Amino acid sequence: MFPVTEDPILSVRNLKKHYPITQGILSRQVGAAKAVDGISFDIAEGETLGLVGESGCGKSTAASSIIRLEEATEGEVIFNGGDRAGRSRNGDGSHPNDVTTFDDEELKAFRRDAQMIFQDPSSSLDPRMTVGSSVAELLLVHGMTDKQRRREIVEDLLERVGLEAEYYDRYPHEFSGGQKQRIALARALVLNPEFIVADEPVSALDVSIRAEILSLLNDIQEEFGLSMLFISHDMSVVREVCDRVAVMYLGEIVEIGDTDEVFSNPQHPYTEALLSAIPRPDPSAQRENIELKGTVPSPTNPPSGCKFHTRCHMVIQSDEFDLEQERWRALLTFRDRVRSGEVDPESIREALALENDDPSSIDDETIKQELRMEFDLAEELYDPEAESILQDALDALADGRIEDANEQLSTFTTPCEKEVPQETDHGNGHLSSCLRNKPETEHGAPLADD
Ligand SMILES: Nc1ncnc2c1ncn2[C@@H]1O[C@H](COP(=O)(O)OP(=O)(O)OP(=O)(O)O)[C@@H](O)[C@H]1O
């Protein structure tokens, strides 16, 4: 389930965007990049929902599928803006307001009511046109033939976004990045939309002017009664503008809730890690810094079970072992690296030999120590059973018996790679999908109490 909003302006249900991976002259489909893999949420009138996650999580794909710059693979995007509110489902179960099935005429009306602001404001401004004409052309396309009236509306808008009416006749290159984003905002507002998708609207801007643009967005949203989907990789930006936040990882929403609630009481380790990256004014008050190692895996071949388990600092330990959480994480990372062939003891041996005056001194013991150091595996693991398996695996690796090493390391398994987490409801529309949030008897205490 997902938090359902009464009379939402936008309802996204099980939205998927899978890009086919093709091979050969016949372009046979051999797989799919599941960039968006079944997301659901509502946005209420006048509300801003933040969609946050690292680069590659699928935020932009979600946005362009919602606004139908790309065709969704599956799912519904029901838009109740314009005069569409209150419509009910057709006999066949489809919805007349489903953007993914709009015909050309419906799409044109939707494109008036729903606008998009991009990271690079220049992308929506033609360098050969004055900024005024760039904004006014939308009015013309949508049927306003009175040139003077168009000019008046645009001049008024330029002022409302903090610029001057006289800027109408200037060209984009005459403006700074922040000013261009203000013009792009005027362009997005000129058709009096009800819904705006803002895709990283401040991340290309100078840090010094980000706050100004965010505060402008807040003001404009209130003044125009806009609903907004606000996309960002930056939690601190999300906190400035969003009423609610949805945290996205590898095509899925792993946590959603009121911004205050999610920030003060995160329930998913990924959210926790994103929050810990926010710089604090007082470093001594900084919460534990959780380092998110590596990058988001490819959506072509996502990890099994919980997709975050390959990077999760809270990855659940199997009942057989009793290790510090940090070491358990390190062990699983080591196991995965060996399995994927990324650990090559011979190249470590060669590298160490090059650094050393006496290459003959690089024996197996040195290689094993080096591996322990590189993978944070401690000189000796606290759990004797785990230590013995690790020693066997390291012996096998140093000896070039990779298969044996893999076999030893495959003893280390986690429920997180086997079981897909279901959503847990924390009340007040705050949901998360993490196995740790299952009842205590199964996987230990919930995240918040750990
Ligand atoms: N046309 C495409 N074909 C195949 N894969 C794609 C395509 N477009 C995007 N992807 C993949 O889908 C995933 C999600 O990309 P997307 O750009 O939506 O992420 P994002 O969270 O918006 O990141 P960023 O902030 O870097 O844009 C990525 O792994 C990306 O490589």
TrEMBL record:
Sequence ranges of Basic and acidic residues compositional bias: 416-428
Coiled-coil portions: none
Listed EC numbers: 3.6.3.19
Pfam families with a match to the protein in the record: ABC_tran, oligo_HPY
Keyword Membrane included in the entry's annotation: no
Positions of the UniProt region annotated as Disordered: 80-99, 411-450
BP-aspect Gene Ontology terms: peptide transport; transmembrane transport
Domain ABC transporter residues, every copy: 10-275
SUPFAM superfamilies according to UniProt: P-loop containing nucleoside triphosphate hydrolases
InterPro entries the UniProt entry points to: AAA+_ATPase, ABC_transp_ATP-bind, ABC_transporter-like_ATP-bd, ABC_transporter-like_CS, Oligopep_ABC_C, P-loop_NTPase
GO molecular function annotations of the record: ATP binding; ATP hydrolysis activity
Keywords, alphabetical: ATP-binding, Hydrolase, Nucleotide-binding, Transport
Catalytic class of the enzyme: hydrolase
Similarity field: Belongs to the ABC transporter superfamily.
Name of this protein: Trehalose/maltose import ATP-binding protein MalK
Protein's organism: Halolamina pelagica
Gene for this chain: malK_11
